[in-house]
Amino acid sequence: MSCNLSAGRAVPCKDVVGGIQKVFFVDFGGLGDVSLTADEITNCDGTFSAYEYALKGGSSLEQTVTSSRESGTAYFEQVLTLSLTKLTKEDNVQIKLLAYGRPQVAVVDYNGNAFLVGLNNGAEVTGGTIVTGTAMGDLTGYTLTLTAQEVLPANFITGATVANPFAGLTAATETIVVGTNS
């Protein structure tokens, strides 16, 4: 593998915004064999359900590069922080299942980009809270932190849409399970 740079970068236009619109949880391994071209997910052959969680503020994806000259290693820690409003007994069950598992997570940002967190190793729930708040305006709901450690940053997914981040993956058979209001 060549370690030489292959492109430069100009200062981009100011035409982007921060934040995450939705996440889609897929049970680990459900994507099947995943094809990468130039570090972008271009296909997968799995049959899976993707569970959609709509978000409103307070959620982010942050990736930290960890590189060690001494050990000759480099990896990317992907940390997904979610804020989910309102407590329900149904959501308690799903939060528990997320904590027990290690899903792969498609993240759709407000710029229409879709990324896959936990491609090879899955994402672990490493923390969170179930809170009622104190004051009238406080969050009553869930905060979750999911962490993945991968050899690549979270990969872009080709052909993604806000409604279906897997829309461009022609060999995939996905069922999008849209969230409900409770």
Concise summary:
This protein has one helix at residues 89-100; strands spanning 20-26, 34-37, 40-44, 47-54, 60-68, 73-85, 104-109, 114-117, 124-131, 141-150, 155-156, 173-177. The chain has 182 residues and is mainly beta. The protein has one domain.
Topology:
Elements: E1 20-26, E2 34-37, E3 40-44, E4 47-54, E5 60-68, E6 73-85, H1 89-100, E7 104-109, E8 114-117, E9 124-131, E10 141-150, E11 155-156, E12 173-177
Parallel strand pairs: 4-12
Antiparallel strand pairs: 1-4, 1-7, 2-3, 5-6, 6-10, 7-8, 8-11, 9-10
Structure characteristics:
182 residues, mainly beta, 1 helix, four-stranded antiparallel beta sheet, 12 strands
Structure description:
This protein has about 180 residues and is mostly beta strands. The protein has one domain. Helices cover about 5% and strands about 45% of the residues. It contains one helix and twelve strands, in the order E-E-E-E-E-E-H-E-E-E-E-E-E. The protein has one helix at about 90-100, and strands at about 20-25, 35, 40-45, 45-55, 60-70, 75-85, 105-110, 115, 125-130, 140-150, 155, 175. A six-stranded mixed sheet has the order 11-8-7-1-4-12, with no helix packed on it. A four-stranded antiparallel sheet has the order 5-6-10-9, covered by helices on one side. Strand 5 and strand 6 form a beta hairpin. It is globular and about 55 Å long. The chain starts with 19 loop residues before the first strand and ends in a 5-residue tail after the last strand.
